[in-house]
């Protein structure tokens, strides 16, 4: 009997996905560039399973049922192109290559086009959930050539995470790079969620002067609220975790954050598409600032933070902080969904936003109860422009606003940097302002560059230029951009 699917790449993600597929009754053929790892896997974690090994691409292809389905779980970038180039000569029309790595979506767009020209089908599938997810149920976001979906769907939906109602956290996202785009936004949102939790932690620790045990208790209480999520769960555990000497381990961890680039890609795309993805972008910059450890230590001697501890009722501050975190999170998801909306328009992907929230409901790092509410909001109104158009989210934001303003204002007074919570409230204030100071900005642009402006007392689309100094001409600029 031939294999149902081949998987190339036996690092942490590949091995665990294969074991997961095997558990669900699929016959998997495994291959890895360093072929000794195939034998190590078969004699180790895969011992006693139905998993088959292959020691060459020819052998892998020969052992698969047609149309062949071959999933790459290798390092994103040129390695994916190299494997595709090596595989193509062995494949037949209609065979399917799936890239399950963290590829950048323009690469997936390109690969779809190149493989279609060769009569082959391609899927770019975002996979989230890390090692644990891959083994027991990841969130999977597939996009690419739609005709391949029916062949892959039974396997992917069987191995994926399930919502509390038993729905698979895996469904078709859209054409070409849509799956990898949605995975990229997921990772961006993950950056934002993590930074927001870190800001709440610093407010508690440095502002409210709470001990690790007290912070652990506060987070534990938050788990029982709308904030209930995987990231709050693990943060609760981390705050309680003690090093061998009995003191909190997290206190000993160097405060410089790493990144692999998907948050940065999300920010770059937002700038390209003109979407104000302020919170996620700030979360990427917060990691950048954290990486300047030596400079920060030197600068801290020039600007001593002398702020006193925040006074007042601690329980009240904690509730205000919880509401600020929740409200900021709503803004972050609002911005992420705005970006997906714009990409969907640009690339004709026809993304289903309720479904996207469902894909993230379980299995991935941002899994949360909150995503179920987002899904409901999009089911009630698939055309939502932003989440606050939905009554549930609008009520939370309105209820949180006074506390949120208090927390952000206090953080500035107390010299506690909270870039994401601040960006979130600033976005809300800007987005809900019928009039912004951009009238002055347009005047400045017209003054120095004759860029023209529209007037409040004339119809939209009519442009005016003023000779502000009496020295300039009457010619407006149509090309000069500053
Ligand atoms: P890695 O990203 O570490 O990749 C390891 C695999 O790539 C091995 O099979 C390795 O073969 C192969 N490889 C490399 Br590295 N360079 C190669 C080359 N020049 N030619 C051929 N093969 C090469 O594995 P991973 O952490 O399991 O991640 C797999 C994919 O899934 C990545 O795109 C990753 O971004 C994504 N992802 C990872 C996680 C996670 O939590 N780790 C979560 C979600 C998505 P070798 O054994 O011969 O060196």
Task: Output the CATH topology of the largest domain.
Answer: N-(1-d-carboxylethyl)-l-norvaline Dehydrogenase, domain 2
Q: Proportion of β residues?
A: 5-15%
- Tell me the series of helices and strands, N- to C-terminal: EHEHEHEHEHEHEHEHHHHHHHHHHHH
Cα-atom radius of gyration: 26 Å
**Strand elements, count:** 8
Oligomer: single chain
Ligand species: nicotinamide 8-bromo-adenine dinucleotide phosphate
Integer count of domains: 3
CATH architecture of the largest domain: Orthogonal Bundle
Uncertain runs: none
Descriptive account of the structure:
- Helix 1 packs parallel to helix 6.
- This protein has 482 residues and is of the alpha/beta class.
- The mean pLDDT is 96.
- It has an 8-stranded mixed β-sheet, with helices on both faces.
- The protein contains 19 helices and 8 strands.
- The protein has 3 domains: 172 residues, NAD(P)-binding Rossmann-like Domain (Rossmann fold, 3-Layer(aba) Sandwich); 249 residues, N-(1-d-carboxylethyl)-l-norvaline Dehydrogenase, domain 2 (Orthogonal Bundle); 46 residues, Single alpha-helices involved in coiled-coils or other helix-helix interfaces (Up-down Bundle), CATH 1.20.5.320.
- Helix content is 52%, strand content 7%.
- Nicotinamide 8-bromo-adenine dinucleotide phosphate binds next to helix 1, helix 4, strand 6 and helix 6.
């Amino acid at each position: 009997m031939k294999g149902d699917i081949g998987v190339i790449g036996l690092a942490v993600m590949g091995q665990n996905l294969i074991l997961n597929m095997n558990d669900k009754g699929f016959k998997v053929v495994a291959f890895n560039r360093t072929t000794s790892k195939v034998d190590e896997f078969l004699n180790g974690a895969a011992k006693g399973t139905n998993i088959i090994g292959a020691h060459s691409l020819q052998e892998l292809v020969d052992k698969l049922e047609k149309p062949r389905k071959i999933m790459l779980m290798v390092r994103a970038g040129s390695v994916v192109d190299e494997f595709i180039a090596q595989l193509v000569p062995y494949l037949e029309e209609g065979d399917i290559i799936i890239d399950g790595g963290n590829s950048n979506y323009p690469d997936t767009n390109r690969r779809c086009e190149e493989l279609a020209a060769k009569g082959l089908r391609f899927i770019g599938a975002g996979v989230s959930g890390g090692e644990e997810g891959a083994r027991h149920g990841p969130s999977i976001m597939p996009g690419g050539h739609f005709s391949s979906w029916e062949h892959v769907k039974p396997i992917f939906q069987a191995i994926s995470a399930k919502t509390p109602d038993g729905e698979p956290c895996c469904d078709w996202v859209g054409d070409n790079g849509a799956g990898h785009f949605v995975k990229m936004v997921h990772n961006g949102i993950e950056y934002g969620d993590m930074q927001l939790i870190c800001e709440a932690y610093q407010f508690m620790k440095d502002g409210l002067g709470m001990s690790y045990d007290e912070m652990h208790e506060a987070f534990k209480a938050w788990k029982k609220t709308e904030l209930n999520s995987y990231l709050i769960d693990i943060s609760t555990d981390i705050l309680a975790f003690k090093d061998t000497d009995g003191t909190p381990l997290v206190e000993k961890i160097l405060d410089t954050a790493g990144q692999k680039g998907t948050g940065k890609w999300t920010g770059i795309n937002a700038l390209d598409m003109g979407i104000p993805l302020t919170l996620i972008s700030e979360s990427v910059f917060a990691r950048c600032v954290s990486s300047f450890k030596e400079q920060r230590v030197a600068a801290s001697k020039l600007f001593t933070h002398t702020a006193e501890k925040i006074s007042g009722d601690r329980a009240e501050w904690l509730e205000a902080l919880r509401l600020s975190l929740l409200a900021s999170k709503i803004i972050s998801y609002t911005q992420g969904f705005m970006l997906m909306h714009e990409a969907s328009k640009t690339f004709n992907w026809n993304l289903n936003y309720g479904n996207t929230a469902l894909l993230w409901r379980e299995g991935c790092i941002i899994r949360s109860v909150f995503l179920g509410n987002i899904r409901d909001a999009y089911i009630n109104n698939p055309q939502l422009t932003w989440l606050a158009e939905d009554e549930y989210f609008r009520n939370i934001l309105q209820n949180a606003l006074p506390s949120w303003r208090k927390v952000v204002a206090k953080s500035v007074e107390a010299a506690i940097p909270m870039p994401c919570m601040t960006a979130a409230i600033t976005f809300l204030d800007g987005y809900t302002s019928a009039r912004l100071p951009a009238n002055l900005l347009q005047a400045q642009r017209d003054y120095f560059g004759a860029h023209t402006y529209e007037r409040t007392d004339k119809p939209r689309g009519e442009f005016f230029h003023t000779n502000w100094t009496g020295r300039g001409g009457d010619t407006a600029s149509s090309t000069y951009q500053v």
